[in-house]
Design goal:
Blueprint (H helix, E strand, L loop, with lengths): L16 H12 L7 E6 L2 E6 L2 H10 L4 E3 L1 H4 L2 H4 L8 H11 L5 H21 L5 E3 H17 L3 H25 L11 H27 L6 H7 L4 H32 L1 H15 L13 H13 L5 E5 L3 E3 L2 E3 L4 E4 L1 H5 L18 H6 L18 H18 E5 L5 E3 L3 E3 L3 E6 L2
Parallel strand pairs: 2-8
Antiparallel strand pairs: 1-2, 3-5, 4-12, 5-8, 6-7, 9-12, 10-11
Length: 431
Protein backbone atom coordinates (compact mmCIF):
# COMPACT_ATOMS: atom_id res chain seq x y z
CA UNK A 1 0.00 0.00 0.00
CA UNK A 2 1.20 3.61 -0.49
CA UNK A 3 3.14 5.06 2.43
CA UNK A 4 1.71 8.33 3.82
CA UNK A 5 4.04 11.28 3.37
CA UNK A 6 4.51 13.60 6.34
CA UNK A 7 3.33 17.18 5.97
CA UNK A 8 6.26 19.34 4.88
CA UNK A 9 6.70 21.26 8.11
CA UNK A 10 10.06 19.72 8.99
CA UNK A 11 12.51 22.58 9.80
CA UNK A 12 15.53 21.05 8.11
CA UNK A 13 18.27 23.60 8.69
CA UNK A 14 19.41 25.16 11.95
CA UNK A 15 19.96 23.88 15.45
CA UNK A 16 18.55 26.58 17.70
CA UNK A 17 16.70 25.31 20.80
CA UNK A 18 13.38 26.56 19.42
CA UNK A 19 13.87 24.80 16.10
CA UNK A 20 14.95 21.53 17.67
CA UNK A 21 11.99 21.62 20.06
CA UNK A 22 9.72 22.25 17.06
CA UNK A 23 11.13 19.12 15.39
CA UNK A 24 10.39 17.01 18.46
CA UNK A 25 6.77 18.23 18.55
CA UNK A 26 6.50 17.51 14.83
CA UNK A 27 7.72 13.92 15.15
CA UNK A 28 5.54 13.30 18.23
CA UNK A 29 2.44 13.97 16.09
CA UNK A 30 3.37 11.77 13.12
CA UNK A 31 1.34 8.79 14.39
CA UNK A 32 -1.75 10.69 13.26
CA UNK A 33 -0.70 9.96 9.65
CA UNK A 34 -0.13 6.20 9.98
CA UNK A 35 2.08 3.47 11.44
CA UNK A 36 4.82 4.17 8.87
CA UNK A 37 5.21 7.69 7.48
CA UNK A 38 7.67 8.82 4.83
CA UNK A 39 9.69 11.79 5.99
CA UNK A 40 11.62 13.87 3.47
CA UNK A 41 14.78 15.25 5.07
CA UNK A 42 16.12 17.29 2.20
CA UNK A 43 17.53 14.73 -0.27
CA UNK A 44 17.12 11.88 2.25
CA UNK A 45 13.85 9.91 2.24
CA UNK A 46 13.29 8.12 5.54
CA UNK A 47 10.47 5.98 6.93
CA UNK A 48 9.29 7.06 10.37
CA UNK A 49 7.81 4.19 12.42
CA UNK A 50 5.14 5.39 14.83
CA UNK A 51 3.56 2.24 16.31
CA UNK A 52 4.95 0.16 19.21
CA UNK A 53 4.33 -3.11 17.34
CA UNK A 54 6.36 -2.09 14.29
CA UNK A 55 9.01 -0.51 16.51
CA UNK A 56 9.41 -3.89 18.20
CA UNK A 57 9.81 -5.49 14.78
CA UNK A 58 12.56 -3.04 13.80
CA UNK A 59 14.48 -3.38 17.05
CA UNK A 60 13.81 -6.99 18.03
CA UNK A 61 11.89 -9.51 15.96
CA UNK A 62 13.32 -8.36 12.62
CA UNK A 63 16.38 -6.71 14.13
CA UNK A 64 18.80 -8.87 12.13
CA UNK A 65 17.43 -7.31 8.92
CA UNK A 66 18.63 -3.86 9.99
CA UNK A 67 21.91 -2.17 10.73
CA UNK A 68 22.73 1.29 12.08
CA UNK A 69 21.39 4.08 9.87
CA UNK A 70 22.57 7.29 8.23
CA UNK A 71 22.85 9.34 11.42
CA UNK A 72 25.35 6.88 12.87
CA UNK A 73 27.54 7.01 9.77
CA UNK A 74 28.55 10.50 10.87
CA UNK A 75 29.85 9.15 14.20
CA UNK A 76 32.08 6.48 12.62
CA UNK A 77 35.19 8.65 12.14
CA UNK A 78 35.56 9.35 15.87
CA UNK A 79 33.67 6.48 17.60
CA UNK A 80 35.18 3.84 15.32
CA UNK A 81 33.76 0.35 15.63
CA UNK A 82 32.68 0.53 19.25
CA UNK A 83 29.58 -1.33 20.40
CA UNK A 84 27.30 1.59 19.52
CA UNK A 85 28.24 1.54 15.82
CA UNK A 86 29.45 -1.97 14.98
CA UNK A 87 27.21 -4.44 13.17
CA UNK A 88 26.66 -8.14 12.50
CA UNK A 89 28.86 -10.87 13.93
CA UNK A 90 31.54 -8.41 15.02
CA UNK A 91 28.98 -6.54 17.13
CA UNK A 92 27.73 -9.76 18.74
CA UNK A 93 31.30 -10.84 19.52
CA UNK A 94 32.14 -7.51 21.12
CA UNK A 95 28.91 -7.56 23.11
CA UNK A 96 29.73 -11.02 24.48
CA UNK A 97 33.23 -9.89 25.44
CA UNK A 98 31.90 -6.85 27.30
CA UNK A 99 28.88 -8.47 28.96
CA UNK A 100 30.80 -9.64 32.09
CA UNK A 101 31.60 -6.01 32.94
CA UNK A 102 27.88 -5.49 33.59
CA UNK A 103 27.00 -8.67 35.49
CA UNK A 104 25.20 -8.27 38.80
CA UNK A 105 28.37 -8.86 40.84
CA UNK A 106 30.13 -6.05 39.00
CA UNK A 107 27.16 -3.70 39.37
CA UNK A 108 27.24 -4.34 43.11
CA UNK A 109 30.89 -3.24 43.16
CA UNK A 110 30.14 -0.16 41.08
CA UNK A 111 27.24 0.70 43.42
CA UNK A 112 29.69 1.45 46.23
CA UNK A 113 31.45 3.92 43.94
CA UNK A 114 28.11 5.46 42.99
CA UNK A 115 27.07 5.97 46.61
CA UNK A 116 30.45 7.38 47.61
CA UNK A 117 30.57 9.81 44.68
CA UNK A 118 26.97 10.98 45.20
CA UNK A 119 27.59 11.52 48.94
CA UNK A 120 30.77 13.50 48.21
CA UNK A 121 28.87 15.75 45.80
CA UNK A 122 26.00 16.32 48.26
CA UNK A 123 28.51 17.11 51.02
CA UNK A 124 29.89 20.03 48.98
CA UNK A 125 26.55 21.81 48.78
CA UNK A 126 25.77 24.59 51.26
CA UNK A 127 22.38 25.66 52.69
CA UNK A 128 20.70 28.23 50.46
CA UNK A 129 23.24 27.75 47.67
CA UNK A 130 21.85 27.82 44.12
CA UNK A 131 23.28 24.98 42.03
CA UNK A 132 23.18 24.47 38.27
CA UNK A 133 22.00 20.89 38.62
CA UNK A 134 22.83 19.61 35.14
CA UNK A 135 26.47 20.63 35.70
CA UNK A 136 26.57 18.77 39.01
CA UNK A 137 25.02 15.67 37.47
CA UNK A 138 27.43 15.74 34.53
CA UNK A 139 30.36 15.92 36.93
CA UNK A 140 28.93 13.05 38.97
CA UNK A 141 28.32 10.84 35.91
CA UNK A 142 31.87 11.43 34.67
CA UNK A 143 33.27 10.50 38.08
CA UNK A 144 31.27 7.28 38.34
CA UNK A 145 31.82 6.02 34.79
CA UNK A 146 35.46 7.13 34.87
CA UNK A 147 36.19 5.23 38.09
CA UNK A 148 34.46 2.14 36.73
CA UNK A 149 36.61 2.30 33.59
CA UNK A 150 39.95 3.36 35.07
CA UNK A 151 41.15 2.62 38.59
CA UNK A 152 44.86 3.49 38.34
CA UNK A 153 46.57 6.84 38.97
CA UNK A 154 47.05 7.23 35.22
CA UNK A 155 43.37 6.46 34.82
CA UNK A 156 42.40 9.19 37.27
CA UNK A 157 44.28 11.71 35.14
CA UNK A 158 42.31 10.41 32.16
CA UNK A 159 39.07 11.05 34.04
CA UNK A 160 40.03 14.72 34.41
CA UNK A 161 40.47 14.99 30.65
CA UNK A 162 37.15 13.23 30.15
CA UNK A 163 35.53 15.77 32.47
CA UNK A 164 36.98 18.56 30.34
CA UNK A 165 36.16 17.18 26.90
CA UNK A 166 33.37 14.62 26.83
CA UNK A 167 30.37 16.96 26.60
CA UNK A 168 31.95 18.88 23.76
CA UNK A 169 32.36 15.55 21.97
CA UNK A 170 28.76 14.48 22.65
CA UNK A 171 26.96 17.70 21.81
CA UNK A 172 29.08 18.86 18.88
CA UNK A 173 29.09 15.28 17.57
CA UNK A 174 25.29 15.22 17.52
CA UNK A 175 25.18 18.57 15.73
CA UNK A 176 27.49 17.07 13.10
CA UNK A 177 25.26 14.04 12.77
CA UNK A 178 22.22 16.24 12.13
CA UNK A 179 23.97 18.59 9.70
CA UNK A 180 24.87 18.29 6.01
CA UNK A 181 28.33 16.79 5.51
CA UNK A 182 29.94 20.02 4.36
CA UNK A 183 29.24 21.68 7.74
CA UNK A 184 31.87 19.60 9.57
CA UNK A 185 34.55 20.93 7.22
CA UNK A 186 33.82 24.59 7.96
CA UNK A 187 36.36 26.47 10.15
CA UNK A 188 33.77 27.37 12.78
CA UNK A 189 34.27 27.35 16.58
CA UNK A 190 32.16 24.23 17.19
CA UNK A 191 34.22 22.19 14.74
CA UNK A 192 37.52 23.41 16.19
CA UNK A 193 36.35 22.62 19.74
CA UNK A 194 35.17 19.16 18.70
CA UNK A 195 38.39 18.25 16.87
CA UNK A 196 40.57 19.45 19.76
CA UNK A 197 38.48 17.53 22.33
CA UNK A 198 38.67 14.30 20.33
CA UNK A 199 42.44 14.66 19.93
CA UNK A 200 42.94 15.18 23.67
CA UNK A 201 40.64 12.31 24.63
CA UNK A 202 42.30 9.85 22.28
CA UNK A 203 45.78 10.77 23.46
CA UNK A 204 45.00 10.30 27.16
CA UNK A 205 43.05 7.04 26.73
CA UNK A 206 45.82 5.52 24.61
CA UNK A 207 48.32 6.55 27.30
CA UNK A 208 46.28 4.63 29.90
CA UNK A 209 46.15 1.59 27.60
CA UNK A 210 49.92 1.75 27.05
CA UNK A 211 50.48 2.00 30.81
CA UNK A 212 48.30 -1.07 31.38
CA UNK A 213 50.19 -3.05 28.75
CA UNK A 214 53.44 -2.18 30.51
CA UNK A 215 52.45 -3.55 33.92
CA UNK A 216 49.85 -6.11 32.74
CA UNK A 217 47.96 -6.13 36.05
CA UNK A 218 44.24 -6.79 36.35
CA UNK A 219 43.00 -3.78 38.32
CA UNK A 220 39.42 -5.00 38.42
CA UNK A 221 38.19 -2.15 36.24
CA UNK A 222 36.46 -2.27 32.87
CA UNK A 223 39.64 -1.36 31.00
CA UNK A 224 41.38 -4.44 32.43
CA UNK A 225 38.49 -6.64 31.32
CA UNK A 226 38.63 -5.29 27.77
CA UNK A 227 42.37 -5.76 27.43
CA UNK A 228 42.39 -9.19 29.10
CA UNK A 229 39.71 -10.22 26.57
CA UNK A 230 42.33 -9.75 23.84
CA UNK A 231 41.17 -6.50 22.25
CA UNK A 232 43.65 -4.41 20.28
CA UNK A 233 44.56 -0.92 21.49
CA UNK A 234 42.38 0.68 18.81
CA UNK A 235 39.37 -1.52 19.56
CA UNK A 236 39.79 -0.91 23.28
CA UNK A 237 39.87 2.83 22.63
CA UNK A 238 36.72 2.59 20.49
CA UNK A 239 34.87 0.72 23.23
CA UNK A 240 36.10 3.05 25.99
CA UNK A 241 34.95 6.14 24.08
CA UNK A 242 31.61 4.44 23.37
CA UNK A 243 31.12 3.65 27.07
CA UNK A 244 32.03 7.21 28.01
CA UNK A 245 29.62 8.82 25.57
CA UNK A 246 26.76 6.37 26.13
CA UNK A 247 27.28 6.00 29.88
CA UNK A 248 27.55 9.67 30.80
CA UNK A 249 25.08 11.63 28.67
CA UNK A 250 21.88 9.64 29.28
CA UNK A 251 22.43 9.25 33.01
CA UNK A 252 23.39 12.88 33.62
CA UNK A 253 20.32 14.14 31.73
CA UNK A 254 17.99 11.73 33.55
CA UNK A 255 19.38 12.67 36.97
CA UNK A 256 19.04 16.40 36.33
CA UNK A 257 15.44 16.08 35.13
CA UNK A 258 14.51 13.70 37.96
CA UNK A 259 15.77 16.13 40.60
CA UNK A 260 13.98 19.01 38.88
CA UNK A 261 10.67 17.14 38.71
CA UNK A 262 10.93 16.05 42.35
CA UNK A 263 11.75 19.61 43.39
CA UNK A 264 8.73 21.14 41.65
CA UNK A 265 6.20 18.50 42.73
CA UNK A 266 5.69 18.58 46.53
CA UNK A 267 3.65 15.37 46.62
CA UNK A 268 6.32 13.43 44.71
CA UNK A 269 9.02 14.93 46.92
CA UNK A 270 7.13 13.94 50.08
CA UNK A 271 6.70 10.33 48.92
CA UNK A 272 10.38 10.09 47.94
CA UNK A 273 11.54 11.43 51.32
CA UNK A 274 9.19 9.11 53.19
CA UNK A 275 10.55 6.11 51.30
CA UNK A 276 14.25 6.89 51.76
CA UNK A 277 13.66 7.60 55.45
CA UNK A 278 11.86 4.28 55.92
CA UNK A 279 14.35 2.18 53.92
CA UNK A 280 17.62 3.87 54.89
CA UNK A 281 16.95 5.43 58.27
CA UNK A 282 19.62 8.04 57.61
CA UNK A 283 22.44 5.64 56.69
CA UNK A 284 24.19 5.54 53.28
CA UNK A 285 22.41 3.66 50.52
CA UNK A 286 23.77 0.29 49.40
CA UNK A 287 23.16 -1.93 46.41
CA UNK A 288 20.91 -4.17 48.53
CA UNK A 289 18.63 -1.20 49.24
CA UNK A 290 17.87 -0.55 45.57
CA UNK A 291 15.29 -3.35 45.39
CA UNK A 292 13.31 -1.75 48.25
CA UNK A 293 13.33 1.79 46.86
CA UNK A 294 10.27 1.10 44.74
CA UNK A 295 8.86 4.63 44.49
CA UNK A 296 12.34 5.96 43.70
CA UNK A 297 12.44 3.45 40.84
CA UNK A 298 9.05 4.71 39.64
CA UNK A 299 10.53 8.22 39.49
CA UNK A 300 13.36 6.83 37.38
CA UNK A 301 10.94 5.12 34.99
CA UNK A 302 8.86 8.26 34.58
CA UNK A 303 11.97 10.36 33.97
CA UNK A 304 13.16 7.97 31.27
CA UNK A 305 9.70 8.11 29.72
CA UNK A 306 9.40 11.88 29.83
CA UNK A 307 12.95 12.78 28.77
CA UNK A 308 14.25 10.10 26.37
CA UNK A 309 16.46 10.45 23.32
CA UNK A 310 14.81 12.03 20.31
CA UNK A 311 15.30 9.36 17.66
CA UNK A 312 17.51 6.55 16.38
CA UNK A 313 18.02 5.41 12.80
CA UNK A 314 18.28 2.00 11.17
CA UNK A 315 18.97 0.93 7.59
CA UNK A 316 17.41 -2.15 6.00
CA UNK A 317 19.90 -4.83 4.92
CA UNK A 318 17.31 -6.66 2.80
CA UNK A 319 13.75 -6.07 1.67
CA UNK A 320 11.59 -5.79 4.80
CA UNK A 321 7.83 -5.97 5.30
CA UNK A 322 6.61 -3.71 8.14
CA UNK A 323 2.89 -4.21 8.52
CA UNK A 324 1.35 -3.22 5.20
CA UNK A 325 4.48 -1.41 4.04
CA UNK A 326 7.25 -2.92 1.93
CA UNK A 327 10.68 -1.35 2.42
CA UNK A 328 13.49 -2.00 -0.06
CA UNK A 329 17.04 -2.84 0.98
CA UNK A 330 18.94 0.31 1.92
CA UNK A 331 15.90 2.20 3.20
CA UNK A 332 16.47 4.55 6.13
CA UNK A 333 14.13 3.97 9.08
CA UNK A 334 13.58 6.26 12.06
CA UNK A 335 12.31 5.18 15.48
CA UNK A 336 11.60 7.87 18.07
CA UNK A 337 11.54 6.96 21.77
CA UNK A 338 10.41 10.54 22.43
CA UNK A 339 7.38 10.17 20.15
CA UNK A 340 6.46 6.73 21.51
CA UNK A 341 6.78 7.86 25.13
CA UNK A 342 4.49 10.83 24.52
CA UNK A 343 1.75 8.92 22.71
CA UNK A 344 -1.43 9.48 24.69
CA UNK A 345 -2.83 6.16 23.47
CA UNK A 346 -0.44 4.42 25.86
CA UNK A 347 0.51 7.19 28.31
CA UNK A 348 -2.51 9.28 29.35
CA UNK A 349 -1.63 12.94 29.86
CA UNK A 350 1.84 12.24 28.44
CA UNK A 351 3.35 15.61 29.33
CA UNK A 352 2.42 15.28 32.99
CA UNK A 353 5.19 13.87 35.20
CA UNK A 354 3.47 11.05 37.11
CA UNK A 355 5.65 8.35 38.71
CA UNK A 356 2.50 6.78 40.14
CA UNK A 357 1.49 5.55 36.69
CA UNK A 358 4.22 2.86 36.88
CA UNK A 359 2.23 0.21 38.69
CA UNK A 360 2.76 -3.46 37.87
CA UNK A 361 -0.62 -3.51 36.13
CA UNK A 362 0.24 -0.49 33.98
CA UNK A 363 3.62 -1.91 32.99
CA UNK A 364 2.12 -5.30 32.16
CA UNK A 365 -0.47 -3.63 29.93
CA UNK A 366 2.00 -1.67 27.80
CA UNK A 367 2.46 -3.12 24.31
CA UNK A 368 5.96 -4.21 23.36
CA UNK A 369 7.82 -1.31 21.82
CA UNK A 370 5.87 1.44 23.61
CA UNK A 371 8.58 2.10 26.21
CA UNK A 372 12.15 1.85 24.90
CA UNK A 373 14.45 4.10 26.97
CA UNK A 374 17.42 1.80 26.29
CA UNK A 375 16.46 0.46 22.87
CA UNK A 376 15.71 -3.22 22.38
CA UNK A 377 16.92 -6.57 21.10
CA UNK A 378 20.62 -7.29 20.78
CA UNK A 379 21.23 -3.55 20.57
CA UNK A 380 19.63 -2.75 23.88
CA UNK A 381 22.05 -0.63 25.91
CA UNK A 382 24.46 -2.95 27.72
CA UNK A 383 24.67 -0.55 30.65
CA UNK A 384 20.95 -0.16 31.35
CA UNK A 385 21.15 -1.79 34.80
CA UNK A 386 24.25 0.28 35.60
CA UNK A 387 22.36 3.47 34.70
CA UNK A 388 19.21 2.51 36.65
CA UNK A 389 21.28 1.71 39.73
CA UNK A 390 23.23 4.95 39.47
CA UNK A 391 20.09 7.08 39.21
CA UNK A 392 18.31 5.35 42.11
CA UNK A 393 21.36 5.56 44.38
CA UNK A 394 21.94 9.23 43.57
CA UNK A 395 18.29 10.21 44.11
CA UNK A 396 18.21 8.38 47.45
CA UNK A 397 21.52 9.93 48.56
CA UNK A 398 20.43 13.46 47.74
CA UNK A 399 16.93 13.00 49.19
CA UNK A 400 18.37 11.84 52.52
CA UNK A 401 20.04 15.22 53.06
CA UNK A 402 18.55 17.86 50.80
CA UNK A 403 15.53 19.42 49.19
CA UNK A 404 16.31 21.00 45.82
CA UNK A 405 13.91 23.81 44.91
CA UNK A 406 13.81 25.20 41.35
CA UNK A 407 14.42 28.95 41.21
CA UNK A 408 12.91 29.32 37.72
CA UNK A 409 11.06 27.22 35.15
CA UNK A 410 13.15 24.76 33.16
CA UNK A 411 14.49 25.51 29.73
CA UNK A 412 15.07 22.72 27.23
CA UNK A 413 17.45 22.41 24.31
CA UNK A 414 17.30 19.39 22.02
CA UNK A 415 20.27 17.68 20.43
CA UNK A 416 20.16 13.92 20.74
CA UNK A 417 17.92 14.32 23.79
CA UNK A 418 16.08 17.06 25.71
CA UNK A 419 19.04 18.68 27.48
CA UNK A 420 18.25 20.83 30.52
CA UNK A 421 19.50 24.37 30.02
CA UNK A 422 20.35 26.06 33.29
CA UNK A 423 18.36 24.07 35.89
CA UNK A 424 19.05 26.38 38.82
CA UNK A 425 17.93 24.86 42.11
CA UNK A 426 18.38 26.04 45.69
CA UNK A 427 19.77 23.51 48.16
CA UNK A 428 17.73 23.42 51.39
CA UNK A 429 18.73 21.01 54.21
CA UNK A 430 15.97 18.60 55.09
CA UNK A 431 16.60 19.06 58.79
Amino acid sequence: MPVPVAPRRWPLLGHTPAMLTQRAKFTDALHEHGDVVRLDLGPLHAYFVTSPALTHEVLVSQGSRFRKGAMFDKFQPYLGTGLLLSNGEFHLRQRRLMQPAFHRERIETYAATMARAAAALAARWRPGEVRVIENDMQELAVTIVGEALFSTEMGRRAVEEVRRSIFTVIQQGMIRALSPSFVEKLPIPGNREFDAAITRMKAVVLQVIESWRTDGIDHGDVLSMLLLAGMTDQQTYDEVLTLLTAGIETTAIALAWALYEVGRNPEIEHRLHAEVDAVLGGRPVTFADVAFLTYTEQIVQETLRRYPIWFVMRRTLTDVQLGDVHLPAGAEVIVSPHALHHDERYFPEPRRFDPGRWTQEFTAGLPRGAFIPFGGGNRQCLGNTFAHTEIVITLATVATRWRLIPTRPARVKFTSAPYPDGLRMKAVPRN
